[in-house]
Design goal:
Number of strands: 8
Helix content: 25-40%
Largest sheet: 6 strands, antiparallel
Pfam families: Thg1, Thg1C
Radius of gyration: 23 Å
Bound molecules: guanosine-5'-triphosphate, magnesium ion
CATH superfamily of one domain: tRNA(His) guanylyltransferase (Thg1)
InterPro entries: Thg1_C_dom, tRNAHis_GuaTrfase_cat, tRNAHis_GuaTrfase_Thg1, tRNAHis_GuaTrfase_Thg1_sf
Family: Belongs to the tRNA(His) guanylyltransferase family.
Protein name: tRNA(His) guanylyltransferase
Oligomer: single chain
Shape: globular
CATH class of one domain: Alpha Beta
Function: Adds a GMP to the 5'-end of tRNA(His) after transcription and RNase P cleavage.
């Protein structure tokens, strides 16, 4: 094919298309852009909205399926998710731009795609059809009878996206498994510190949402603004400024004490998902990995691009838990993860 005279501009791309150093773990972290505003606009429950955190997990699982089997683990809390890519991965020939941009965009579109499953009981797309107006609209009113509180709650949970959310992304290289473990410990400590602060802050301001989990079927009930009705004589809610001032010189044990003595909240009973964040592991045996590698070799495909894994139910290899990754125990039980 003959080349146009403008073809030379392509050479300029090479200088910014970094190839990531071999034999290092690649970590890509996505983070919600201005999620403070996003959560306010969508009236998310404080300090944690389980619907949003579950949606983040669903979006992360989509990314792990899309790049199967390159991402061995993911960790998420608040509006962020970190993806750990195998040390020996040759995903997109380790081109940084390609890897970061694809992970961020897959995550963002999954977040929008699955939104209605978590924030609505309406069929997909029902709330997003936009049809040009043909004539001035009129509104009717309707009265609906619901037989029980579950259906009323489902109705109230119906919440269309108000605007397209965005996520930023960054890519970091780590030279060995110890630093990757410390990276994940760093994110989990951050989750713990922020969650304890936010839980106490929103208790003080009266906006704390209490969740009760039914561990037999994983269903849950929740009560927004719970502290306003806590006990017979609940403390008066503070303004955000007063709450910030009250917490300014407190240490961790002070916050536990405020929660327990003033509101009857035992922080230890908060959902593990809120206290620890979400850990998603690709639990795939070396044997299965080997068979995928050899199958792809036969088809002259490398591990970098997802092969024909239609026969594999990838979801069955993805496990979500709210486990401690700071202690050694997790790592000794998952020794093959960071090989
Ligand atoms: N109410 C509520 N807010 C949440 C929840 N998860 C995340 N957020 C909000 O998301 C913010 C995430 O923090 P940051 O990433 O530091 O802040 P940001 O506003 O996203 O700013 P940038 O990341 O710099 O764009 C928190 O401060 C909360 O305001 C949730 O479950 N409920
Ligand atoms: Mg953010």
């Amino acid at each position: 094919m003959s080349q146009s005279k403008y073809e030379y501009v392509r050479t300029y791309e090479e200088s910014t298309d970094n190839v990531l150093l071999k034999d290092c773990y690649i970590v890509v972290r996505v983070d919600g852009h201005k999620f403070h505003k996003f959560s306010k606009c969508h009236d998310l429950f404080k300090p944690n909205d389980k619907r949003c955190l579950d949606l983040m997990n669903e979006s992360a699982k989509h990314v792990m399926r899309a790049f199967f089997p390159n991402i061995v683990m993911a960790y998420g809390q608040s509006d962020e998710f970190s993806f750990i890519i195998r040390r020996v991965s040759d995903l997109y020939k380790r081109r940084q731009n390609k890897i970061t941009s694809l992970i961020v965009s897959s995550f963002s579109s999954a977040f929008v795609f699955y939104w209605s499953q978590y924030f609505s009981n309406q069929p997909q797309n029902a709330c997003h059809q936009s049809v040009p107006l043909q004539y001035p609209p009129a509104f009717d009113g309707r009265c609906i009878l619901y037989p029980n509180s579950k259906v009323v709650m489902d109705y109230l949970r119906w919440l269309p996206l108000q605007y397209p959310p965005a996520f930023d992304g960054r890519c970091i290289l780590y030279p060995n498994s110890k630093v990757v473990m410390d990276y994940l410990r760093w994110r989990q400590v951050d989750c713990h510190i922020n969650n304890l602060y936010n839980t106490t802050f929103h208790a003080l301001t009266g906006h704390y949402t209490k969740y009760v989990l039914n561990s037999t079927d994983n269903s849950y009930t929740f009560t927004p603004n719970w502290t306003q009705s806590a006990g017979a004589d609940p403390p008066l809610p503070l303004t955000p400024r007063e709450a910030t001032e009250r917490l300014s010189k407190t240490i961790s044990s002070d916050k536990h004490e405020i929660l327990f003595t003033e509101y009857g909240i035992n922080y230890n009973n908060e959902l593990q998902q809120f206290k620890k964040g979400s850990v998603i592991v690709l639990d795939i045996s070396q044997q299965l990995m080997q068979s995928i590698v050899s199958k792809n070799k036969k088809k002259k495909k490398s591990l970098d691009v997802k092969g024909d894994e239609e026969d594999i139910d990838i979801n069955s290899y993805l496990s979500v838990s709210y486990i401690d990754v700071i202690k050694e125990e997790f790592w000794s039980q998952n020794q093959s993860l960071l090989t």
